[in-house]
Amino acid sequence: MKVAPHPLFWLFFLALSAVFTGCKEDTDSPDPDVKKGKVALEFENVVGDSPLELNSVTPYSTPSNEDFKVTIFRYYISNIKLKRADGTEFIQPNSYYLLDQAREASLKFTIPDVPVGNYNSLTFTLGVDTTRNTGGAQTGALAISDMFWTWDTGYIFTKMEGSSTQAPNKALVFHIGGNSNRKVVSPAMNNRVIQVRESRTPGVHVRADVLRMFTGPEIILFSKTNNVMGGDDAVRVAKNQAAGMFTVSAVDTEYTE
Questions:
Q1: Which of 18, 127, 162, 248 stands 20 to 30 A from 32 (CA)?
Q2: Mean pLDDT in the chain?
Q3: How far apart are CA 55 and CA 246, in angstroms?
């Protein structure tokens, strides 16, 4: 003989079902209160305290008193992150940028859909991540160009070419790439805060100093090291780049070009 469940059982069951259903809806639904803004990034390539000028009439000088001129200066940055003081991060998806001194427009871009808040840290990768680096022909900033070696070797993360009277054949070629030379960079903010709001777009000004490729943890002398396309010398240059090539020079509350 079957005994029917007590009426209180059904009341308990229905109440429990409502609780679990409510929890699932709260988890799956997007938060309608999240407001978003934009952040403008502007890069300035320099040589010490001077703006970088391609094919300059007057040569630049390294701390080792070697002269040089620059004809090409390009580099990839990717995987841009912004972090709040509480540790929460915004990571821009599929962020790959090729910055080229010969193309002024490439040195400025805007990051969309950044949650409103105050951010005190900027991080990006100098180079291209492993998956995309050897992923073959791609589009956008990663379209095949003279910044790409081969499908299994990948991209040139930084390309600097020029000349120096100290180099044996006067030419300088620095092509830095390879997964081991990809560097994550977090330039010091020096207590600056990136204030993201719906109503205005803050601007972050970043300097990239060519000189820091040749000085820092490793001293690069053009008389000895002047044609780099991989190997130990590329590792040395990449180490210098990570140690201080990039700095945040200013943060604007509202960006204006």
A1: 18
A2: 89
A3: 22
The angle formed by the CA atoms of residues 94, 188 and 217, to the nearest 5 degrees, is 95
Amino acid at 20: F
Q: Are 141 and 147 in contact (CB under 8 A)?
A: no
Alpha helices in 115-230 (DSSP H): 130-133
The answer to whether 109 and 127 are in contact (CB under 8 A) is: no
User: What ranges make up the beta strands (E) of 48-193?
Assistant: 50-51, 60-61, 67-84, 89-91, 96-100, 108-115, 117-126, 156-163, 171-177, 183-185
Cα(75)–Cα(141) distance, integer angstroms: 11
User: Do 125 and 96 touch, CB atoms closer than 8 A?
Assistant: no
* Strands 67-84, 50-51: pairing kind: unpaired
Q: Are 79 and 124 in contact (CB under 8 A)?
A: yes
Q: Alpha helices of the chain — where are they, by DSSP H? A: 7-28, 130-133, 231-244
Q: How far apart are CA 96 and CA 112, in angstroms?
A: 14
pLDDT tens digit sequence for 225-236:
999 999 999 999
Give me 128's structure tokens. Answer: 């291209």
pLDDT digits (tens, 9 = 90+) for 49-100: 999 999 999 999 999 999 999 999 999 999 999 999 899 999 999 899 999 9
CB-based contacts of 120, cutoff 8 Å, min separation 6:
83, 84, 85, 189, 191, 192, 193, 194
